Amino acid sequence: MSPVFRRAADRLTDAAPGWLLEAVRPAPAALRWGPMLRMAVGVTTPLLVGLAAGQIALGLLPSMGVMSTSMADRGGSYRARIILMCAAGSAGALGYLTGALVRGDGWWTVLVVTAVSALSALISTAGAAGSAAGLQLLVMTVLGTGIPVPGPPGPNTLKFLLGAVWALALALAGWPLRPRAAEEAAVTAAYHALSRLFADHGRDGLKAFDTALKSGYDTVLSARSAAAGTDPERTRLVALLNQSSLIRNALISLCQEEREPPEELAVAVAGVTDMLAGGPEPRGPRQEYGSPALRALHSAVRGAAELASGGDIAAGQVPYEPVGHRRRLRMLWERMWYGHLARVYTVRLVLCMGVAGAVSESGWFERSYWLMLTVALVLKPDFGSVFARAVQRALGTLAGTLIGTVVLLVVPYGPALLIPIAVFAALMPYGMQRNWGMMSAFQAPLVLLLVDLLTRGGPKLAEVRLVDTLAGCAIVLLLGYLPWPASWEAPVGPRFADAVSATARYLRHAFDPEDPGRALLRRQAYDAFADLRTVFQRAVTEPRVVSRRITTWMPAMTALERVADATAATVARTEHGAPPPSEAAVQALVTSLEGIASDVRAGRAPRRPELADEEALERVNSAVSSLRDTVSGDHSGTGEARNG
User: Taking residues 293-319, what's their average pLDDT?
Assistant: First the structure.
């Protein structure tokens, strides 16, 4: 990106409201041409087959199957991608069949769509696969009731499934050649972030590494959990991620001693990074060091170099908790039926879909299924702020509709439409990684062109689409957002308390090197921080009157991260020569953190912690005291945010 464009983007970022902030950020570094090419090829191939058969509209349903399935492909291990794409494709096919069977049945159609919306809301709580399946189930039910595709519902559903299988085949084309490509790339990305951390020890560098590390764990463990028996290569990748976490903690410990990391160790980490990316075997550090922090850093870097070169893997290197199928199903069931947020979301979605369906039966809108489709897409709890999505979708659809109108005016009906269809399909993955508005700007003309292949509606389709989308956004804002105060704010307070509790659990076991669960507890603590940051980032995209209360949590979040970092750095020193703390002093810290978490949940000011005066825990004690003072100072905003 040029310096001029970057400066302009920075000025826009400072001036833009939260719900437009993502629109001026640089494109994500993880974006590759592969997803864009797969989407373009996947969508246009069925249309080309239909064109060769003399009926281009025959490819419409397979193309929709490709879109529905490919939109669930968010990268990661092949196993995770297969689960997500199969869930989305099969649910989409079931949704289309349901919608096609009740198409044109008047109020019975509205009743069925409303019932499907309730089922979709419950399914969406069941993790990433449930979210993808729930969305496509509802979206394709709506499209099945609205798009008049020639032919019986059964064969048409098979066409949709054919497109889903084609999308899956394109996504898995590289599996036979490099079955662990995604896991290897995720570990390499973590080490790239670690190499940058040697030069940038600040909070931004730590956050970048922690994000890459969490992504690495998620990718490798999601693939490892399904491996039959032991998989030495995946176990080595997990061990490398563990080792990178130890290097991070030792770097923090070194910074606390106000020392810079030796050049030899930085070069060694860069060598490990290069080898993971396909370079030569790295050379481990040779010099011995005196201080506990330097010894900890030297030991961690040497361990990473040995692992990258094929050295032995230490026992207990995999920080994950095996979960049986029965327990997993029980957890999903409890989340679906007993979660307060799940119940509230279900009621909101059913209400809005019911009203949208009733409006569609009034005859006020020419293609009213777009109105229901907008409600389904905007009112999705795990996609971020409802307000931001409603505004971004309205603006994105406006821009996309104008583009689609120009295309329909300029490009004649027929094979020539496949060119802009391929372009917009290729841009869809790019828009999905930027924000909801940009994705809508590419999706709107794509859907217009696909529908035009079937109905030959011409430029008038663009006007109809825009009116229906704006009406759907209005229904969401007036019925699914404004009357529900709990939906105005993300639950930052409860997630903050959860992160404090996770830190306390890690601290309780952090100084016991024989504890086999210590690595898992450390990872759970940093996962809780990542979840907290996600909830916070969604909350700040709400309107200013709401987001300004949420931002009072930022100092407390920073203070909590310092507690975890001080703990990890102290552990690194004690494992390499520094005197360990007493059990009583550690328990005093754990009790203080648990008290802070309890007080935040209750909405009261935390009490002053009673900490033991031990030199070994001086930095951790100071960080916990600072956390308490910060939370107490923000208490006027804490109570408001906690209620969200």
Answer: 71
Neighbouring C-alpha atoms within 13 Å toward the C-beta of 69: 32
Query: Nearest Cα to 421, choosing from 28, 15, 41?
Result: 41
**Sign of the four-CA dihedral 473, 478, 484, 488:** positive
Cα gap 552→45, rounded to integer Å: 51
CB neighbour class for 79 (10 Å; exposed up to 12, middle 13-18, buried from 19): middle
**What kind and span of H or E run contains 59?**
none
- Can you give the pLDDT at residue 24? 38
pLDDT in tens, 516-525: 777 778 878 8
Domain residue limits, the chain: 25-176+339-487, 181-308, 492-643
At 541, list the tokens: 């995209």
Q: Is the Cβ–Cβ distance between 40 and 425 less than 8 Å?
A: yes
**Tens of pLDDT along 528-582?**
887 787 777 766 666 665 566 667 778 888 888 888 888 888 888 888 888 888 8
Q: For tokens 């704006």, what's the residue?
A: 470
Q: Which two tokens stand for residue 506?
A: 């890690």
Query: Distance between CA atoms of 476 and 356, rounded to whole angstroms?
Result: 9
- CA-CA-CA-CA torsion sign (54, 416, 393, 429): positive
In contact, 450 and 63? CB cutoff 8 Å:
yes
- CA pair distance 130, 340, nearest whole angstrom: 18
* C-beta neighbour count of 601 within 10 angstroms: 16
Which is nearest to 212 in space by CA: 187, 248, 249?
A: 187
Model confidence pLDDT, tens digit, residues 286-295? 666 677 888 8
Give the three-class secondary structure for 588.
helix
Residue 532 gets the label, from left (phi > 0), alpha (psi -120 to 50) or beta, of alpha
Q: What is the 8-class DSSP label of residue 262?
A: P
Residue 171 in contact with residue 80, Cβ under 8 Å? no
Tokens 């971004």 identify what position? 392
Q: Cα 381 from chain centroid?
A: 12
Closest CA to 293 of 591, 631, 578, 621: 578
How far from each other are the two terminal CA atoms of the chain, in whole angstroms? 38
- Alpha helices (H) in 147-262, listed in sequence order: 153-171, 181-199, 203-224, 232-256
Q: What is the pLDDT of residues 107-119, one digit of tens each?
A: 888 899 889 888 8
Tokens 């080490």, residue located:
191
Report the share of the chain in percent with pLDDT over 70: 78
CB atoms within 10 A of CB 622: 14
pTM for the full predicted model:
0.69
